Please model this.
Amino acid sequence: MTLLRRGEVIEDAFASAVGEESLPADGAVIVDLAQWQAQRDALLSRGAPVGVWLRPDDDPRALADDLSKLAVVALEFPAFTDGRAYSNARILREQLSYQGELRAVGDVLLEQLHFMDRVGFDVFEVRSEDAVQAWKTASADIDVWYQPTGDGRKTALQRRWGR
Amino acid sequence: MYRYDEFDAELVNDRAEQFRRQTARRIAGELTEEQFRPLRLMNGLYLQLHAYMLRINVPYGVMSSRQLRKLAQIARDYDKGYGHWTTRQNLQLNWIQLQETPDILKELASVEMHCIQSSGNCIRNTTADEYAGVAADEIEDPRVYAELIRQWSTLHPEFSFLPRKFKIALTGSPNDRAAVKVHDIGLIMHRNDAGKPGFEVIVGGGLGRTPFVGKTIRKFIETRELLSYLEAILRVYNRLGRRDNKYKARIKILVHETGTEEFTRMVEEEYTRLAGGALEVPQEEIDRIDAYFAPPDYRALPAASETLREKRAENPAFDAWVEQNTHAHKQPGYIIANITVKTPGRAPGDMSSDQMEAVADLSDTFSFGELRVTHRQNLTLTDVEQDRLFELWERLVELDLATANHALIGDIIACPGLDYCALANARSIPVAQEIATRFEDIKRQKDVGPLELNISGCINACGHHHVGNIGILGVDRAGEELYQLQLGGCSREDAALADITGRGFAADKITDAVETVIDTYLELRNDGETFLDTYRRVGMDPFKQKLYDAA
Ligand code: HEM
Ligand code: SF4
Model:
């Protein structure tokens, strides 16, 4: 697995404790929503960054009050055809004003990076051999977008009217 | 009609190039068929029984003669010289090579056409009333909003991996000619008390194995708020629609299982978060698009043409065609002419490249170079001078496209069925041909009166059989092709699903069964009643008796 932040490969600073009985002694960690809800105080008192991993049927609004405390929200694509995380990403970014890292994990297909980019993901867990090149191709694929999303990119309509 | 500006054009070109790269990756083996499948589907490419099938969008059914000529040329150069007009107001080509599709997409882009989202689990080509902009009974031209929806739904970053395909249809007239109530979202235009135009929003209609007539979840949404409201519906569906079972994944199942009231509440809640936001359409944008749909340079003409009256009196065949195949226009002296692509003995909706080119010429000569594709698989010339209608008809006769059967029993909808489709249980085209031939006599068809007969080759209902006044469904019973007969369906504003008559009929008996239904109706009907009127009055029993008791 390669972790890609926009065009660059990055190190994964987070260990995953999803499904684990106990938390690692130290270091940045990602837990799932149930773990977060059960061990919120313990996680915050560890003094290391915390991320929450959401399954597609988890409601991102469950994190509404905690988002400023989270370093990462990871949204799972159990299959590339399961598009729920696209909506969850926009809810986090546009309605809950989440500012931290939004990570796409699971079956993340290069052909979908440009959609993910637009709904607010900034880090992608991909399987590709040459992720950087793949990113370049995918992000250059489409230059015109009709839909206003939280990424602030100008839509065709705004460009048309010079806004 | 709408013309692409630099942004629209760039997107379609980008997309064609993107698909060229993806196809190359597939051919080189870098993408598996499973990974390639959703990509090709989003570009309209299906793998069928004998070859790839390509579905080309005709956005809301409106095209220019230049575009039609391009379609004719593509059908000739890359297929076998004909194409198939479909219930989705699209053109389908049935014999396509994978390696050639990037070139086809490029050719399409050169005339502002594409196949984006003509299949796959995304928002499909939006369909509309074929008389949009010219019908006398219209409140406002819905094409402006169809174009806004086309743009909003094209490569939507959030809604390209929905639980299932998603179809939107709209009409600007209270007389629904676009079957909006059997779409995932149907929109019917109304005016509010202040005289402002807006849409009634109907959700959860659909056919397939679990048919439903859609439910109204909002009586009125202002036009500038339309996209925000659609986005709210799609977001609720994308998050909550079922993904565990593809047969239960359409929005109709979500609406049904959640209940209309609760579903409406969720949509309204999401809408309050989106209302007045970035999706609100500025009036200047509505005006910009509207200007493309400005009426053509109509001549000032008297309301009724003397020439037309004379020609009708002289020529009974022409008179019959005018009576059946034309419709009132809102501009004095003009008329809407329907070309039924239902010549007896031919597959409904099939048209050769030569015919397409000839019809393109006719639209240049008689109708400002524009045409429509209808959801009943026909073509329409919307702006014909009444004075010149006879001349047009003569040309259509030469092309074998002047059958006077519009909206009659010969004007059959039929899906491709077993002749092309990998999912079919039974043939649809030969059944359509046999029925059309049995009722070939136009006088007899006219005597039977308005009647929609729809045929699907399997439960997926691409041929709209559930909403045919008479519907025929191909089923497979222990290896035998049987045809189930259904009565009383309707796709109009008073939409209803048809009832099944009983056990199915063998291929060589189904036409007789249809004839029995027709004869029974003719015996029972009161003056002025259509088939549907009579069926609604007398119900299934008398038909059932005639169909089964004798046997
Ligand atoms: C030839 C290959 C075709 C295949 C494999 C195919 C496949 C399907 C399937 C699987 C469904 C059921 C979807 C569901 O209920 O979730 C369906 C529905 C439908 N298709 Fe097709 N189809 C084909 C051709 C066509 C054609 C030629 C048209 C006309 C444009 C068409 C229009 C429709 C319509 C109107 C429906 C039912 C309405 C609804 O979506 O509920 N299909 N098709
Ligand atoms: S109704 Fe069935 S047979 Fe007909 S085109 Fe659709 S999937 Fe194929």
